[in-house]
Design a protein that fits this description.
Helix 14 links the parallel strand 16 and strand 17. A six-stranded mixed beta sheet has the order 8-9-10-5-11-12, with helices on both faces. By secondary structure, it is of the alpha/beta class.
Length: about 400
């Protein structure tokens, strides 16, 4: 993906992220206060290009910590450094223009079009109108919104999920090395939230920004973070580690309780569908010769034929017993599809979708909803029990069989 230089000239690949370091950072709102503050002696380092999630209960100081990075809140003591430079030594306006910021309420300007919203910071940086338009259209496409369809709309004409995508695009507009995200997906329904999380992880693979991400949801923290900072009430850092380390070795009773008793199941959030060797799906199109399709499905251990459209997008299943020996395949005979999952979907989310639908096979699709393969409950269970040998089960088999 091309991106604009911060001086407003030319295009080029995004430069990735910058190291962010907290050194003994404390925030007290009452300067005469002698006891614990909102944040207390916070120290950790986020390497360039990594996602660090700040997680903890209400009142633990995670949002305060985030806002001290771009100086929406000034620290009482200690230092916050970006690539070794203390943020308090930089002009605050300049600092904020090179840090992307995404919040739950999104904060789009209602009187500006979507394209104009994305171009706010580039405009302040003196980019030409042509370059602003180019960047807006580029980023709309990047976050999965068709530029010609969305560029001239206003925020009120978009859904919550679409507005959140625009908020991410706006934060990326000037190619910032650091992004701050405060409960960015908390205001959308769970299905849209999962899609936004997956889309964001896909973008991060490409962009490699340094991201500080605030959430109260430990499952989201495990899914989104390369590193997780678990904070206690009173602004104390309880543990700073990778999700795998926190799940395997909680540093205290507080962390163990906060992570939850189902730590084994949560480990499925550390792996994604893309990490599995997908099972190939036997596919055919409506109108194809039935005899050839029947021959192929009878030769396969998975007893269901997946009907797809001309773009290889799934339509529905045909039981091998319902595939005729002659004539043409008929779409009308297809039974409802299994859940659709993406390569970025965590195994925990995929398992949840399968159990909720009472099926044992999900269809893995790419961004264009084209079929990539199948994933089954047993394939996922094998990740928790490596000695288990996954078996291929029919898509409508009772999910209880996985118990």
């Amino acid at each position: 993906m091309t991106s604009g230089n911060r001086d407003g000239g030319g295009t080029g690949r995004g430069k990735g992220g910058a190291t962010v370091e907290f050194r003994n950072v404390t925030k007290r709102y009452d300067q005469g206060q002698k006891g614990p503050g909102a944040v207390n002696d916070l120290s950790f380092t986020v390497p360039a290009g990594k996602v660090c999630v700040l997680v903890g209960p209400s009142g633990c100081g995670k949002t305060t910590s985030l806002k001290m990075v771009n100086r929406l809140i000034e620290p009482t003591s200690g230092q916050i450094l970006i690539d070794g430079q203390d943020v308090t030594g930089e002009d605050v306006t300049t600092l904020r223009r090179r840090i992307g910021y995404v919040i739950q309420q999104i904060g789009l300007f209602p009187h500006l079009t979507i394209g104009q919203n994305i171009g706010v910071v580039p405009r302040l940086l003196g980019w030409t109108q042509a370059r602003q338009l180019e960047r807006s259209e580029e980023l709309l496409a990047t976050v999965g919104l068709e530029p010609a369809r969305y560029r001239d709309r206003y925020p009120t004409q978009l859904s919550g999920g679409e507005r959140q995508r625009v908020g991410v695009a706006r934060a990326l507009a000037a190619d910032p090395p650091v992004m701050l995200m405060d409960e960015p997906f908390g205001a959308v329904d769970p299905i849209v939230r999962d899609r936004l999380q997956n889309e964001f992880l896909r973008l991060q693979q490409e962009l490699a920004k340094t991201i500080l991400f605030v959430t109260h949801d430990i499952d989201e923290a495990i899914k989104m973070g390369d590193l997780v900072a678990v904070m206690e009430v009173g602004g104390v850092l309880a543990q700073f580690a990778t999700p795998a380390e926190i799940l395997a070795n909680p540093a205290s009773d507080f962390v163990a309780r906060f992570v939850g008793a189902d730590r084994g199941l949560k480990r499925l959030s550390l792996s994604r569908v893309r990490d599995l060797e997908l099972r190939p799906a036997v596919t055919a199109r409506s109108g194809d010769p039935a005899a050839e399709a029947r021959q192929r499905i009878l030769a396969d251990s998975f007893p269901y034929l997946l009907l797809v459209d001309p773009e290889d997008r799934p339509i529905g299943w045909l039981d091998q017993a319902d595939v005729p020996g002659e004539g043409r395949l008929e779409e009308a005979r297809a039974i409802p599809m299994s859940p659709l999952v993406e390569p970025e979907t965590t195994l925990k989310d995929a398992l949840s979708m399968l159990l909720d639908a009472s099926v044992q096979a999900a269809i893995v699709v790419d961004k264009g909803r084209r079929v990539l393969g199948l994933v089954t409950v047993d394939m996922i269970s094998a990740q928790l029990h490596p000695e288990a040998r996954p078996e291929v089960l029919a898509p409508d088999a009772a999910a209880e069989a996985a118990a």
